[in-house]
Amino acid sequence: MDRQAFYAMMSAPPALDYELYLDTGSLLGCQKGFDEFVNRDELQFQIVHQVEELWMKLIAYTLLDVDDYLQARDTHRVLTLMGRCHRLLRLMTAQLDLLETMSPKEYQQIRLQLGNGSGQESPGFRTLLKMPPHLWTSFVSHYLTPEGRTVRSIYDQDYAHDAAYAVAEALIEFDELFGKFRWHHLFLIHRSIGMGSASLKGRSVDLLQAGAKHRFFPELWDVRVAMTDAWGGDYGRVRDSLSAGAAA
C-alpha cells in the first residue's frame, strides 16, 4: 500500500457533518505526526492512554450525576448510571491488553519520550480518586441515617435486598472494578519494565502496589468479615467433615 497516500487520507481536514460534529480534526490531531513517532508502536501507546482519559472523563461526569441522584434517593437512576460506570471500567481494563503487544524494547524507546511523566499524573485518574468519599457521604446521609440503619443492618439483621442494599452493592462493584483496573495496570508494568525497576520519577514501581490495595468503601468490605466471624461464632469455625460422616 502507498503509506503516504493513506497518511494523507487519515490526516484530511473534516468536511462532512459527522466529522464536524465530532471535531475529528482536533481529535485525530491529538497524536504526533506520522513522521514523528519514535517507532511504529508509539501511535498505539498515545491512543490507548488518550482513550483512557476520555473514559475517565465520562466516568467522572457520570459520578456527578450519581451523587445528585443519591441525594434525591432516585435509586433506579443511581443503579443505571453506576452500571454505566462499571461497563466503562471494564472497557478501560480490557483495552490495556493492547499495550501487551509492545515488546519491552519498543516500550523503552517510547518511555524516553515521556520526560518525567507518570500515569500517576493522569488528570482523570486523580479526579476519580477524589470522588468516592462524596458518594459515600451521600449514600450514608440519604439511605442509612434517615432510617436509623447501618451497613451491618442492611447486609445482616435487616437484610431485604432493598434499595439501600442494591446501591451498596453498586458501590462495592465500582470499588472492585477500579481495583482490578489498577492491578491489571500493575501486571502490565511487570510485563513491560519489571516490578523492581525505578519509575521515571526514581521511585520503585513496587510502591504502586500500595495504591492497588486501596479501597474506596472499606466499610462495605469490612462488613463481610464481621458477619462471617459472627456466624462462625454461632455455628463453629471447625465443623465435622462430610467425608467422615459418609465413611461411618
From TrEMBL:
Keyword line: Dioxygenase, Oxidoreductase
UniProt xrefs under InterPro entries: Trp/Indoleamine_2_3_dOase-like (IPR037217), Trp_2_3_dOase (IPR004981)
GO MF annotations in UniProt: heme binding; L-tryptophan 2,3-dioxygenase activity; metal ion binding
GO BP terms: L-tryptophan catabolic process to acetyl-CoA; L-tryptophan catabolic process to kynurenine
UniProt-listed Enzyme Commission number(s): 1.13.11.11
Record flagged with keyword ATP-binding: no
Family annotation (Pfam families): Trp_dioxygenase
Name of the protein described by the UniProt record: Tryptophan 2,3-dioxygenase
Provenance organism: Edaphosphingomonas haloaromaticamans
